[in-house]
């Protein structure tokens, strides 16, 4: 490549300049330098700087057009902005390979060059020849290569921008508006401007690089925190596969471990489960075999496979791999520590030039190291005895250690208070069991006098109150005798009155005594008639069904018409296990719920405890505990079922929970 050690001399026509012209030019350049300095200070990105300074620089030297090209990795240049370029040409100029080649030539010389000088430079000539189609092949008139082969640099002047012995960009200026060449004063001004712009671009590049590194470090910190948040090996592997995208651009990630002398896919990004033959499913079995044989870091792209000069192990394997799938590049990072090789982290991308960022190399090393440590820790933890029991405890300890001191103190204090409450504070304990509602007593409705059932006022199942009529009896013989006695009484009273009129005291006394006897007998007969009305002896429900069918039936004294169950109060029979019966006593408080009223509780007291239990052999017996509950509204009916809880003393919650275990130990281990 041709080097230009000094600025070439250019033949420029001399122009007579007055002192006024010189003063105006100096003032214009000074103001332009000030505006450039402000533009560089107020903006951060190269695009913003270029958009602000290009009009000022172009106006100061009288150029119609201007552009700023920024250096990129790999000795390439990117058009940051243009000024004054016609709209129909702006897109082509920004994407032109000729402009990038011209900028590269100017950067290599180290001082401004005219477009014509660049066109004659050996390196530019060689580049343009490489763009020309080979001999014997047809030239595509609209192809990029043929167009570049015959194109010339668009701008008039290309000035490299150097900072710290490195070219950070190229300032390109179009032809002056007056048609004259650039003067020495113009070049000096451009060099002054270029030095400031170069420093600003270098500062912007460093700032951007530092921000990028900080973001990558933060992403690495988050990634490391996530993969070390658990010691479960499967979770660690899936977390690694699914979170690598936060650190490096990739389309798919595989975690491959060394198992049984080979490589096995243990986790794939965006997949919950991994098949046994996952390598065959993904079509990477041959690639894994190459990786296992090579044992080291590997980056292969479809471009490197096509380039015969590049060193690609087993080129045919990777060629088939790229051709069969949509992935176009692969990066393999070995996962190893001081104890040996664990496996590989395989990253795939659809970008043909993927994983080519040289600045990310140090972060990839940190990434593979973090993954290796996480996998090794999880693998060692998996081998710890009683890991299933210790894992929750270890997880709680890690979460507790990660908390702030104040929050940790609050949680520890609350835990201590809860433990003290469970261990020391007594709570009511209950003995529960199935419940059956029964009447407190069952009384018959009996006939107090003989008679025929003439009418029934109630039926089976009706709720009645004490004294309510149930049925009426009738005795025709008693009615006839009562009618006859009434007639005889009337005769006796008339004859006693007649004897009194005749002044016959003996006869009057005899008939008066007979009338008195008849009156007494009639009172008895009437009371016997009242006994023929049958009433409920207590408040309750009629248990006997179809009592209406007994109308016309003859009943003797003492015969029962029906039975009435007393339901206020009721007796609830609760079956309590013998394990709890020792803690119960008559008078204890009980609560009852029945299926008919699941939202209500009926309270009562223990009335009796059966002296004998029942149950199958070899099983704890059940004892019947009778609870008496008030039932003024007769909501509880005989035969209702539910559950009951009987208070069995006060004990701490922990003792109540461990009570069955303590009983089992005392029953099975004693001497």
Key features of this structure:
45% helix, alpha+beta, 20 helices, disordered N terminus, single chain
List the helices and strands and how they pair.
Layout: H1 19-42, H2 46-61, E1 66-72, E2 76-83, H3 87-94, H4 97-109, E3 113-114, H5 115-120, H6 122-131, H7 144-150, E4 157-163, E5 166-173, H8 184-227, H9 233-243, E6 252-259, E7 262-268, H10 278-282, H11 285-294, E8 298-301, H12 302-306, H13 315-324, E9 329-337, E10 340-349, H14 361-382, H15 387-402, H16 405-424, E11 426-446, E12 451-456, E13 463-464, E14 469-474, H17 476-501, H18 505-530, E15 533-535, E16 540-542, E17 554-555, E18 560-577, H19 578-581, E19 589-594, E20 597-609, E21 622-629, E22 641-652, H20 653-668
Helix pairs in contact: 1-2, 1-8, 2-8, 4-6, 6-7, 8-14, 9-14, 17-18
């Amino acid at each position: 490549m041709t080097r230009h050690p000094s600025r070439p001399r250019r033949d420029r026509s001399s122009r007579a300049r007055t002192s006024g012209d010189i003063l105006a030019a100096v003032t214009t350049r000074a103001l332009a330098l000030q505006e450039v300095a402000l533009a560089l200070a107020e903006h951060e990105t190269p695009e913003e700087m270029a958009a602000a300074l290009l009009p000022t620089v172009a106006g100061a030297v009288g150029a119609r057009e201007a552009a700023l090209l920024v250096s990129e990795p790999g000795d390439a240049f990117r058009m940051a902005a243009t000024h004054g370029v016609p709209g129909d040409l702006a897109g082509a100029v920004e994407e032109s390979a000729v402009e990038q080649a011209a900028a590269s030539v100017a950067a290599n010389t180290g001082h401004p060059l005219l477009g014509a000088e660049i066109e004659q430079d050996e390196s530019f000539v060689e580049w343009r020849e490489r763009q020309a189609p080979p001999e014997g092949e047809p030239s595509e008139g609209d192809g990029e290569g043929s167009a570049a082969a015959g194109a010339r640099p668009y701008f008039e002047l290309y000035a490299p921008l150097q900072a710290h012995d490195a070219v950070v960009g190229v300032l390109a200026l179009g032809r002056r508006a007056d048609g004259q060449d650039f003067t020495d004063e113009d070049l000096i001004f451009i060099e002054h401007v270029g030095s400031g712009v170069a420093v600003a671009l270098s500062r912007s590049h460093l700032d951007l690089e530092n921000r990028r590194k900080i973001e990558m470090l933060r992403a690495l910190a988050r990634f490391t925190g996530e993969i070390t948040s658990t010691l479960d090996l499967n979770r660690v592997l899936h977390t690694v596969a699914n979170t690598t995208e936060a650190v490096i651009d990739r389309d798919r990630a595989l975690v491959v471990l060394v198992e049984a002398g080979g490589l096995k896919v243990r986790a794939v990004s965006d997949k919950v489960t991994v098949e046994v033959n996952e390598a065959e499913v993904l079509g990477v079995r041959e690639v894994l075999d190459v990786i296992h044989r090579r044992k080291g870091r590997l980056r292969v792209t479809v471009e490197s496979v096509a380039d015969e000069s590049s060193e690609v192990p087993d080129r045919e394997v990777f060629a088939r791999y790229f051709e069969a799938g949509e992935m176009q590049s692969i990066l393999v990072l070995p996962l190893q520590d001081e104890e040996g090789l664990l496996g590989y982290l395989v990253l795939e991308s659809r970008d043909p030039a993927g994983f080519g960022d040289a600045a990310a190399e140090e972060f990839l090393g940190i990434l593979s190291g973090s993954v290796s440590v996480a996998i090794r820790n999880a693998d060692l933890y998996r081998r710890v005895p009683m890991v299933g029991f210790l894992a929750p405890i270890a997880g709680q300890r890690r979460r507790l250690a990660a908390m702030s001191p104040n929050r940790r103190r609050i949680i520890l204090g609350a835990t201590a208070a809860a433990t003290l409450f469970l261990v020391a504070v007594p709570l009511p304990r209950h003995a529960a069991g199935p419940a059956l509602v029964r009447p407190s007593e069952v009384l018959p409705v009996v006939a107090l006098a003989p008679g025929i059932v003439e009418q029934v006022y109630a039926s089976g199942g009706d709720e009645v109150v004490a004294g309510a009529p149930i049925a009426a009896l009738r005795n025709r013989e008693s009615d006839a005798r009562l009618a006859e006695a009434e007639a005889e009484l009337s005769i006796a009273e008339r004859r006693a009155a007649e004897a009194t009129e005749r002044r016959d005291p003996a006869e009057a006394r005899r008939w008066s005594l007979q009338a008195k006897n008849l009156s007494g007998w009639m009172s008895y007969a009437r009371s016997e008639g009242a006994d023929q009305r049958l009433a409920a002896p207590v408040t309750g429900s009629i248990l006997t069904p179809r009592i209406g069918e007994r109308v016309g039936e003859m009943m003797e004294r003492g015969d029962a018409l029906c039975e009435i169950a007393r339901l206020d109060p009721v007796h609830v029979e609760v079956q309590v296990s013998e394990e709890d019966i020792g803690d119960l006593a008559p008078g204890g408080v009980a609560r009852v719920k029945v299926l008919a009223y699941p939202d209500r509780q009926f309270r009562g007291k223990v009335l009796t405890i059966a002296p004998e239990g029942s149950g199958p052999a070899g099983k704890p017996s059940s004892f019947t505990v009778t609870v008496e509950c008030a039932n003024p509204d007769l909501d509880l009916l005989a035969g209702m079922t539910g559950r009951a809880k009987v208070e069995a003393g006060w004990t701490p919650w922990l003792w109540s929970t461990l009570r069955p275990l303590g009983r089992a130990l005392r029953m099975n281990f004693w001497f």
